[in-house]
Design brief:
The protein has helices spanning about 1-30, 40-70, 80-90, 95-110, 115-150. The chain is elongated, with a radius of gyration of 16 Å. With about 150 residues, it is mostly helical.
Length: about 150
Amino acid sequence: MTREKIELLQAELAGLQLAAGYLEYSMQRCSNLIGQDALPPEQLERLESLTSRFTRLAGLLIQRIFRLVDEIELTGGGSILDRIYRAEKRAWANASELIRIRELRNLIAHEYATEKMREIYTAVAAMTPVLLAAVPKVIEYARNTIQRYPV
């Protein structure tokens, strides 16, 4: 069972790096668009891509990678909040910031009101550096975990 989880974690880490790179690219392309009104469709599309990539990376990190590491270390179970607090104990990120990232991810996934999008883009721009900063810490920790459980 642990072997399959280790292999899955290795695959997820590759996806995590790709997703982080895509989010970083989108953030660079959108940094001058944040907070602007009446943007043309092409620029709105860039912002939509940014929020989509933010949501994807947040979900991959919190819902999949955090859970896998917990399961491998036999600390699995509990709520998403429990996973977030364990991530803070592992020094991956501040729990309150991870909670804000999770809440923002949920808001993006369920928001259809266009009048709130400017607010959402601003929040994504503010939280993207926090999310991206956690990725190398998680990768390093996960690689150390993988070494402790040779496949």
